[in-house]
Design brief:
The chain is of the alpha/beta class. It has helices spanning 3-9, 50-63, 74-82, 99-108, 124-130, 153-162, 175-178, 213-226, 232-243, 245-264, 283-289, 304-313, 343-349, 365-376, and strands at 67-71, 90-94, 115-119, 135-141, 166-170, 188-192, 206-210, 271-273, 296-300, 318-319, 329-331, 355-359. The protein has 14 helices and twelve strands. The strands form two sheets. Strands 1-7-6-5-4-2-3 form a seven-stranded mixed beta sheet, sandwiched between helices. Strand 5 (166-170), helix 7 and strand 6 (188-192) form a beta-alpha-beta unit. It starts with a helix and ends with a helix. Bound molecules: pyridoxal-5'-phosphate. Its cofactor is pyridoxal 5'-phosphate.
């Protein structure tokens, strides 16, 4: 099955009992048992729910893994994955990860003895050097947020295997439509499905796919024990979103390419971060490991004051956190998504006060370019 077909026919389609073409929303918490312990596969909806199960089967198929899991948010998904580790274990992480991922590691999970080191994973020798005797995993976000750095997934997974570490990839920015990390050697792939997978700014959700029976058993145990599951209504919304993921990602790519071309020629823009640019330091790698570059672009307008003028004038880009939806969004990472990262740390990473991040949506690209043009005018 090719990718666009799999988005429609992967997982479990429809309802065999009624012929309904859409998977029904099983708004139910508990299930009748014929006799004690004898049931038709579902007993209580924290443990398993048919609508959530259909979504979990679908994301498993799309990522090419052994089992899928749906959580109440991307952060719940990330936290559940981290619960696979024990007190005293160490995880190596990409330095410009999503702000919330940095926060949960350094302010919450550290209190339970899970250690983390943040490094530039786009440099494989840096990964190698960060491995300690208690290291258990390499956690990669690629492309990163907001600087669009690229890590070599296959290269990192190879190092991980040599040291018996797990490779975990946050695939939120690329989605399985463009990038399938399990094929490149990753053990666990996770998503904030709030973004492209849902795609319509109407649901907060997280997804995880694992590539072995053992990890599937362990993660299901964590999911059922800690209980951060996704409800049936939201599971259904994600399946609805996934049906159009292919055409949304293709159109996003076209719009983004045109916008980047425009920004490149604009004198008010000092620096553009986009893996699709040939001048991006990891352009070749990005091209090799993913089929598309995505719709996230960051660019520098020089100062906080300039960024504020742009934000005030812009019409079609909504000032908001989040990304990956049909409507174009704009944000200033230093004061929004990355505000939870201390100022000195942000400076080290290059997240300047003039850095603007856009998530390109599905409006007519001519309108988006005209809008950026008028907002960037002095
Ligand atoms: C948004 C986001 C998260 C967190 O997901 P939520 O659904 O907001 O909890 C994690 N990783 C990345 C890359 C994100 O963009």
């Amino acid at each position: 099955m090719r990718r666009k077909t799999k988005l429609i026919h992967g997982g479990i389609s429809g309802d065999p009992n009624t012929g309904a073409v859409s998977v029904p929303i099983y708004q139910v918490s508990t299930y009748k048992q014929e006799s004690v312990g004898k049931h038709s596969g579902f007993e209580y909806s924290r443990t398993g729910n048919p609508t959530r199960h259909a979504l979990e089967e679908l994301i498993k198929d799309l990522e090419g893994g052994q089992a899928g899991f749906a959580f109440g948010s991307g952060m719940a998904a990330i936290t559940a994955v981290m619960m696979l580790f024990n007190s005293g274990d160490h995880v190596i992480m990409t330095d410009d990860v999503y702000g919330g991922s940095y926060r949960v590691m350094t302010k919450v999970l550290n209190r339970f003895g899970i250690e983390s080191t943040f490094i530039d994973t786009s440099d494989l020798t840096t990964i190698q050097a960060a491995i300690k005797p208690n290291t258990k995993a390499i956690y990669i976000e690629t492309p990163t947020n907001p600087l669009l750095k690229i890590t070599d997934i296959a290269g990192a997974a190879k190092i991980a295997k040599e040291h018996q570490l797990l490779t975990i990839v946050d695939n939120t920015f690329s989605t399985p439509y463009w990038q399938t990390p399990i094929e490149l050697g990753a053990d666990i792939v996770l998503h904030s499905a709030t973004k492209y997978i849902g795609g319509h700014s109407d649901v907060v959700a997280g997804l995880v796919v694992v590539n072995s029976e053992e990890l599937a058993t362990d993660l299901h145990f964590v999911q059922n024990s800690t209980g951060g599951v996704l409800g049936p209504q939201d599971s259904w919304l994600l399946m609805r979103g996934i049906k159009t993921l292919g055409i949304r990602m293709e159109e996003t790519e076209n719009n983004t390419r045109a916008i980047v071309q425009f920004l490149e020629s604009h004198p008010a823009v000092s620096k553009i971060y986009y893996p699709g640019l040939e001048t991006h330091p990891n352009h070749d790698l990005a091209k090799k490991q993913a089929k598309g570059f995505g719709g996230m672009v960051s660019f520098d307008v020089g100062s906080e004051a300039n960024a504020d003028v742009l934000l005030e004038k812009i019409k079609y880009f909504t000032l908001a956190e989040s990304l990956g939806a049909v409507e174009s969004l704009i944000s200033v990472p230093a004061r929004m998504t990355h505000a939870s990262i201390p100022q000195e740390r942000r400076a080290e990473l290059g997240i300047t006060d003039g850095l603007v991040r856009i998530s390109v949506g599905l409006e007519d690209v001519e309108d988006l370019i005209e809008d950026l043009k008028q907002a960037l005018e002095k």
